[in-house]
Design a protein that fits this description.
Helices cover 44% and strands 19% of the residues. The chain is α/β, with parallel strands linked by helices. The chain folds into 3 domains: 124 residues, ATPase, nucleotide binding domain (Nucleotidyltransferase, domain 5), CATH 3.30.420.40; 151 residues, ATPase, nucleotide binding domain (Nucleotidyltransferase, domain 5, 2-Layer Sandwich), CATH 3.30.420; 146 residues, 2-Layer Sandwich (Heat Shock Protein 90). The strands form 5 sheets. Strands 3-2-1-4-7 form a 5-stranded mixed sheet. Strands 10-9-8-11-12 form a 5-stranded mixed sheet, covered by helices on one side. Helix 3 packs across helix 9 and helix 13 runs antiparallel to helix 15. The longest helix is centred in the middle third of the chain and has 45 residues.
Length: 582
């Protein structure tokens, strides 16, 4: 099944303990292609990452997707970057979103798989007519999701929405969470097995056959479930509650007493027009919800771009200062510094404009070709539209990078300066870059260091700055080795990351005056347009962005001479040590 190239597409991935389900979706929820592959066993994070990347290559062979959402079997952090715990996979604090973005270059976000299932039902399933929805999964355990105003609610640190763990009996059965008398201990598959010695399906068959004991069981089950739902209805006043999981197949047996309990416990004003439904999407809900999560990420980033553009204000004029003569020399020095800084900022702006304008000209050229009826066939026209669409989204990604770094430089994004363990950072860099190096047959060597060494930096931006440089070196080399080493300078209490590759240091520079260089007009030659490179930053721009980040963290990034005549120059990233003693 196809779609127009400019319709926009995302990927939804449901990562489970035994299988990985993924699909490519357009903006209205049409699944254009899907695939299920086994989860590698053992589910080592690096191996699972490679399995997901390989599966995505099959589902999205033309790289049409602009973002990725992933449901993981356990809680994530509040930003949707880290799989904090995934018991079925044996994971703890795995930065899966960072790894995916570094490998595929597409914005990625994570969420608990139960939350993704709820988001999927709210988008395309039983909850599609509502904006405030609660999903309760009645399975081996009891999971849940809260959708408010169409958005997934996960709380300040990503762990909200564990609806099955709320207490309904203070003296009740203990559960794995450490709670006693939770809803899960009354309405889950495990609870039914404990109370009856049978599977839910067996109890259902007996009740439908007229077994009075089984009928009474389901009636009592409905009352327990109704009591739990009453709490949720009072807290969230949802428009709909959706029940999913295997037990929901027996809903006709417990819905009447469940509703009776809710009406007994909940005031009419809090349950006005409330609907309680069973889920529609089955085991596809997690994949669908992950795709919706990706679309929400796209919308969020677009809104940020609009907000940034709307709030930009021209700088106010400096106030007049009355200065004594001795202050004039100091003022002159400050003035020179300001002039040099202004020149640097102007150069940065000119370079950014130049690098972003070039691929934009190519996109305009493609559209001119189409508007001038110079395409040989509808297929060729469709090819140019799709290429322009893909280039536009890559261009937006480059703009995002510049905006993020500019906000750090401006101070509107506050850095979280703290001790960062160097050994753990280098392990992450190895994980994030080894696939790219392997795919290009580049030798990647990252040093190991004393685990007691720490630097003062913002963890996210330190990692990002080093990735900018390493990724650029790998992408631009045809062969050879990229080497990242580290060394301490105790006398100055500084730590140096040194990045060396097989190229000359001049490879990081382009001899171009961007302020005085004319911008070329779009070319109409089809051969030229068909072979346009993917929008990306030139090495000098990458170096400049990374340099900005390190300077914001009271560090530096510079090219230094080779340690010996037979070796090329290297990039040295310097940051202050956090260790009190060495």
């Amino acid at each position: 099944m196809g779609t127009e190239p400019n319709a926009g597409q995302v990927l939804g991935v449901d990562l489970g303990g035994t299988a990985i389900k993924l699909g490519r979706f357009d903006s209205i929820g049409t699944c254009l292609q899907s695939l299920t592959v086994p989860t590698p066993q053992p589910a080592e994070p690096r191996t699972v990452l490679e399995a997901i990347v390989n599966a995505i290559a099959q589902v999205d062979p033309h790289h049409d997707a602009i973002a990725i959402g992933i449901g993981t079997p356990g809680p994530t952090d509040g930003e949707g970057r880290v799989a904090r715990v995934a018991i079925n996979l044996g994971w703890e604090n795995v930065p899966l979103a960072d790894w995916m973005e570094a490998t595929l270059g597409k914005p990625t976000i994570l969420a608990n798989d139960a939350n993704c299932a709820g988001l999927g039902e709210a988008w395309l399933g039983a909850g599609r007519r509502f904006t405030d929805v609660i999903l309760l999964t009645l399975g081996t355990g009891v999971g849940g999701a809260v959708i408010l105003d169409g958005k997934l609610f996960v709380g300040r640190n990503g762990t909200a929405g564990e609806l099955g763990l709320m207490t309904i009996d203070r003296e009740g059965i203990a559960c794995n969470s450490g709670n006693c008398g939770s809803l899960e201990q009354h309405v889950s598959v495990q609870a039914i097995r404990r109370m009856t010695g049978m599977e839910p399906a067996q109890m259902s068959d007996r009740a439908k056959a007229g077994d009075l004991e089984a009928i009474a069981f389901w009636q009592n089950y409905g009352r327990d479930l109704g009591a739990g739902l009453a709490n949720l209805i009072y807290i969230f006043t949802p428009e709909a509650v959706i029940l999913s999981g295997g037990i929901s197949a027996s809903s006709e047996l417990f819905f009447p007493t469940m509703w009776d309990e809710i009406k007994l416990r909940v005031l009419p004003t809090s349950r006005e027009d409330l609907q309680i439904l069973t889920a529609d999407l089955g085991n596809q809900a997690g994949m669908v919800g992950a795709a919706k999560l990706a679309w929400q990420l796209v919308e969020q980033r677009a809104a940020q771009l609009q907000a940034n553009a709307a709030t930009r204000q021209p700088p106010s004029a400096p106030s007049a200062l009355a200065l004594s003569d001795p202050a004039l020399s100091e003022l002159e020095l400050v003035n020179r510094m300001v002039v040099e800084l202004a020149k640097f900022k102007a150069g940065f702006l000119a370079r950014t404009s130049h690098e972003l304008r070039s691929p934009l000209n190519g996109i305009l050229g493609m559209h001119q070709l189409i508007l001038s009826d110079l395409c040989d066939s509808p297929d060729e026209e469709r090819e140019f539209i799709q290429q322009a669409y893909h280039s536009t989204h890559k261009l937006l990604g480059l703009l995002d990078e510049v905006i993020h770094v500019s906000k750090v430089d401006h101070g509107s994004t506050q850095l979280q300066i703290q001790p960062v363990q160097v050994a753990s950072l280098l392990d992450d860099l190895q994980m994030l870059t080894h696939l790219q190096a392997q795919n290009r047959s580049i030798q990647l060597e990252i040093a190991t260091v004393d685990p007691e060494l720490y630097v003062l930096a913002d963890p996210h931006w330190l990692k990002q700055g080093l990735l900018y440089v390493i990724d650029s070196a790998i992408a631009l080399m045809q062969e050879g080795t990229v080497r990242l080493t580290a060394q301490v300078e105790p006398s100055s209490r500084q730590f140096h990351f040194e990045i060396e590759d097989s190229r000359s240091p001049s490879a990081w520079h382009e001899a171009v005056n961007y302020i005085h260089t004319p911008v070329p007009m779009p070319a109409l030659a089809k051969e030229h347009l068909k072979n346009l490179p993917e929008p990306s930053f030139l090495p000098g721009m990458t170096l400049l962005i990374a340099q900005q980040l390190f300077e914001c963290m009271q560090g530096s990034l510079r090219l230094v001479e080779a340690p010996s005549a037979d070796r090329p120059g290297l990039l040295r990233c310097t940051l202050p040590l956090a260790n009190d003693e060495l």
